[in-house]
């Protein structure tokens, strides 16, 4: 159909535009500051990358300037962006693998010198820092007199006993570090070499201390956005099979109908706000009619068969969404699944024969639950959004001998509260 081809072309054009803009916008400048080697604080924007491994350089654009500067750990003291504070450091970091298949047999930890930015987890009179180095190995450090001491943790394989052993020297280091706080000594023995466990230990110290931490990295729990959508759908059904020729031979026009719904968008943590799980409760509907002329039964000539169907659905759409900032807008693409339940239906057939006219159901049975896939692209500007989506489901026929695939194009305007 011309309408379907036009909509497919429009969707391809919008997807191409999204990919092109994404290719030219691979920067993510957000508010932040750097502290120079002289101790001056410069405010501006930092190209924040939600680093999985600690960065060894950053790009900074000072307020009032259009050009950017790249800094290494030797050129600044520290920087802050997105509630994350990083300090410049030259430290030892582990090069000993902790993966079961790659364990060494050395009891002592093998290290290398890294010039990097350490992430500050807790800062105060007792401070904790974190480094995931280029090898993907996690390292933790305690602050002592302006220096950063590596907490030693090593997993190795004892060839003599053919067993995996663990060197927990960090436990003794922590006992010495917290020697003025005997109340946390028992907790030290239970502390694992992990972010959560070590942070809990430091927070326990500050809970019994007369001082408070100057900085504490907040746990990124993500966020939730909610709102409404409204717009229109264009729906097409194409029957297939060798049964019910009055349906399979029909040329059915697209159905244009209003649609609307409510949504909850769960923004995932540690994703720069780019990845989310989008959930939408949606009302949608469509109708179709067929006209058939010819033989319906071998011994009974039917002049005309008219069938009318109309369905209203309450659908739950669950999609994974990726969005990317482009200046003051977000472009996004999403895909997932749709589950719909019929809440209202019309199912009617009229047989106009040579001798009589009969009324009956268009189909003896209707599939009440419709499942399919859904995907699309869109743009968000502040509270408003525009969406173009395509949904494909099995349709309303429950019969193996009659397929009724439903294709729906959605065009939606949304508002986030």
Low-confidence stretches: 21-25
DSSP E strands, number: 22
Helical run tally: 5
Q: What percentage of residues falls in helices of 4 or more residues?
A: 10-25%
Q: Can you identify the CATH class of the largest domain?
A: Mainly Beta
**Reported CATH architecture of the largest domain:** Beta Barrel
Distance between the termini: 39 Å
Radius of gyration: 32 Å
* Mean model confidence by pLDDT: 89
Class from helix and strand fractions: mainly beta
Q: Fill in the CATH topology of the largest domain.
A: Porin
Overview of the molecule:
With 417 residues, this protein is mainly beta. It folds into two domains: 88-219, no CATH class; 221-416, Porin (Beta Barrel), CATH 2.40.160.20. Helix content is 13%, strand content 53%. It has five helices and 22 strands. It has helices at 2-23, 169-177, 185-189, 195-208, 245-248; strands at residues 29-36, 41-47, 58-62, 69-71, 76-81, 84-94, 111-123, 128-132, 138-144, 147-150, 154-158, 163-167, 215-216, 223-237, 255-267, 275-295, 301-326, 329-353, 357-360, 369-381, 384-393, 406-416. Strands 1, 2, 3, 4, 5, 6, 7, 8, 9, 10 and 13 form an eleven-stranded antiparallel beta sheet that branches. The longest helix is centred in the first third of the chain and has 22 residues, at 2-23. The radius of gyration is 32 Å and the shape is elongated.
């Amino acid at each position: 159909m011309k309408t379907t081809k036009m909509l497919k072309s429009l969707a391809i054009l919008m997807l191409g535009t999204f990919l092109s803009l994404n290719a030219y916008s691979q920067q993510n400048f957000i508010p932040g500051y750097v502290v120079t080697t002289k101790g001056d604080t410069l405010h501006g924007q930092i190209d924040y990358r939600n680093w999985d491994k600690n960065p060894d350089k950053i790009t900074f654009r000072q307020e009032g300037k259009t050009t950017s500067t790249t800094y290494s750990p030797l050129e600044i003291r520290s920087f802050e962006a997105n509630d994350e504070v990083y300090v410049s450091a030259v430290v030892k970091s582990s090069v000993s693998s902790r993966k079961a298949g790659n364990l060494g047999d050395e009891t002592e930890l093998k290290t290398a010198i890294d010039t990097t930015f350490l992430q500050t987890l807790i800062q105060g009179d007792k401070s904790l820092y974190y480094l995931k180095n280029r090898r993907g190995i996690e390292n933790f450090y305690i602050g002592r007199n302006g220096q950063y001491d590596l907490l030693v943790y090593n997993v190795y394989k004892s060839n003599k006993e053919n067993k995996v052993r663990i060197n927990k020297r960090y436990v003794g280091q922590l006992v010495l570090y917290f020697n003025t706080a005997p109340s946390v000594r028992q907790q030290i023995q239970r502390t694992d070499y992990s972010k959560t466990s070590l942070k809990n230990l430091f927070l326990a110290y500050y809970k019994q201390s007369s001082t408070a931490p100057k900085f504490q990295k907040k746990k990124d729990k993500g966020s939730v956005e909610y709102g409404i959508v409204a717009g229109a759908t264009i729906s097409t059904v194409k029957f297939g099979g060798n049964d019910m020729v009055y349906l399979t031979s029909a040329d059915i026009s697209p159905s244009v109908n209003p649609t609307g719904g409510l949504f909850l968008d769960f923004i995932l943590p540690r994703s720069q706000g780019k990845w989310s799980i989008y959930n939408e409760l949606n009302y949608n509907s469509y109708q179709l009619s067929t006209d058939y002329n010819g033989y319906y039964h071998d011994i009974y000539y039917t002049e005309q068969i008219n069938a009318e169907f109309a369905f209203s659905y309450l659908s739950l759409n669950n999609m994974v969404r990726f969005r990317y900032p482009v200046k003051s807008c977000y472009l996004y693409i999403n895909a997932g699944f749709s589950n719909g339940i019929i809440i209202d239906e019309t199912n009617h057939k009229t047989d106009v024969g040579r001798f009589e006219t009969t009324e009956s159901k268009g189909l003896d049975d209707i599939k009440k639950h419709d499942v399919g896939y859904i995907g699309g692209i869109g743009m968000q500007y502040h509270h408003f959004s525009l969406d173009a989506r395509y949904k494909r489901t099995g349709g309303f026929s429950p019969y193996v001998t009659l397929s009724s695939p439903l294709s729906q194009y959605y065009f939606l305007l949304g508002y986030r509260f």
